[in-house]
Amino acid sequence: DQEGGIVQRIKDGVDAVASQADTATGTLPEARCTYYRLGTQLRALGVNQDYAPVADVIREPQDVIGTRSFGTDPARDAAFVRAAVTGLQSAGVLATVKHWPGHGNTLTDSHAALAVLHQDATSWRRVDRRPFAAAAGEVAAVMVGHLALPALDPSMRPATLSPVLVRGQLRKVLGFRGLVVTDSMWMQPVRAAGDPAQAAVLALRAGDDMLLMSPDVPGASRALLARVQRSPRVRAMVQAAVRYVLAAKARIGNQPGPDLCSS
Predict the structure, then answer these.
(1) Which one of 56, 183, 208, 209 is the catalytic residue?
(2) Is pTM beyond 0.85 here?
(3) Which of 182, 176, 174 is nearest to 201 (CA)?
(4) Does the annotation count 183 as an active-site position?
(5) Residue 146 catalytic?
């Protein structure tokens, strides 16, 4: 979570970066350079994936994402998301856009409760999906949020546990072929769905490839292994997830691209 602004987990060896809101007041080449420099510093520390940039479009003035977003204009946000992705990945660090399907239209903090997105499907496609769609062909990973979007999935499941929003909208409709990572499995909306073992199985079935911060890694692992051993369908899901993980690892091995700050 080295986003810039208020979310910068590493303090030593990495320069402080402005918030995404502040970055968006500059130019796209400046943004690419900023994230390229961040990526080179992270790679020098051995960090090969960054859970950034935030691709949420701010719709509510008091939205919990705030300055973590590039702003309120979906077209401008999309351009800056792509610039950040290009910068990080040109430095050899995998970028991760978040929080699918978009955290910008709710006042609820998804750490504490299920955040419900009340926009209709047309509005979501026109605004919230746009930065994700712009980056989908280039970005290495997408982080899925604990966000319900009843216009597309009336079950009110958080996106992390929703086959409709991951296998359907992200994979099939948007055509994303990179790595799908959950937001933290410690967060309340997932914990409310069952114990860590049950949540792990639900996340796999939804289409998530990597589960972030399970409260009980051994229990989640045992639950998945038990289902792999008795269900060919679950075994195929795990094998598909592993292929996405291996493809991401192969990208890490690529040499960094040209210096985006040299011009």
Answers:
(1) 183
(2) yes
(3) 182
(4) yes
(5) no
